[in-house]
Amino acid sequence: MTKIIAHRGSKGTHPENTLIAFREAIECGADGIELDVQFTKDGELVVIHDNQVDRTTNGTGEIISFTLRELKMLDAGSWFSPEFKDERIPTFSEVLEVLFQDNFKGLLNIELKTDEKDYPGIEEAVSDLLHKRNWPFTYMYSSFNFDSVERMHQLEPTIPLAYIMGDQPRKIRKAEKISYLEGLHPKVTWVLKEQDNVKKSSKKLRPWTVNSEDDLAVCFELGIEAVHTDYPRRALALRAKNKQLTNEE
What Gene3D superfamilies does the record point to (predicted)? Predict the structure, then answer.
């Protein structure tokens, strides 16, 4: 059964990569949660997608130009809706604490956002933090930056790794040959165009970002490992409906 991974929390219904978005993902029963990790100016791990704060806060500038204290002063919720005005950019530690306290038992997909800024030492910092406690969830690492993926393989050779990409066949073919890659995370357009190759893939496929009912239905039909979606609650309902229809046939 195709797993449902909440993309940046429940990105379609809550301000992305905030604690309230992750709580919604847990509450709705998502099988997995995806988040993005970057470094602040003072070397703190924070969860935010863009290299800059402009789109999802009331601030301007690159993440790396802010200290954690400065980032915590920004409003990371009002851009989405006034009801979320008190949301802040969370640290990676804060998100992990929420997952621990809420006893999240799914998969945490940690995307290292090193494709625009190759933050030196971020892989070691993330790995060290995850080794400080026994977590109720399982976790994996992914990145668009293959160097980050390789570094994580050296640090944690037993943890699943995935390479994120668009829909370029050349990159897919190259990644298929790399033995230590457990998964591939292609853009969903590749899945829709290359369904025969999807069926032949030796890797666990978790495409992004799968939001429409038609695209979800295709992924369910193909039996893909998982999908990243902005609307996990809706995707879970559709999966349950599809399962019921299949059982009735």
Answer: Phosphatidylinositol (PI) phosphodiesterase
On the 0-12 / 13-18 / 19+ scale of CB atoms within 10 A, 245 is exposed
- Please state, in angstroms and rounded to a whole number, the distance separating the CA atoms of residues 214 and 97: 36
Ordered structural domains, the chain, with CATH: 3-248 (3.20.20.190)
Query: Can you give the pTM of this predicted structure?
Result: 0.97
Reported as a single tens digit per residue, the pLDDT across 209-237 is 999 999 999 999 999 999 999 999 999 99
Q: Which two tokens stand for residue 150?
A: 């390789």
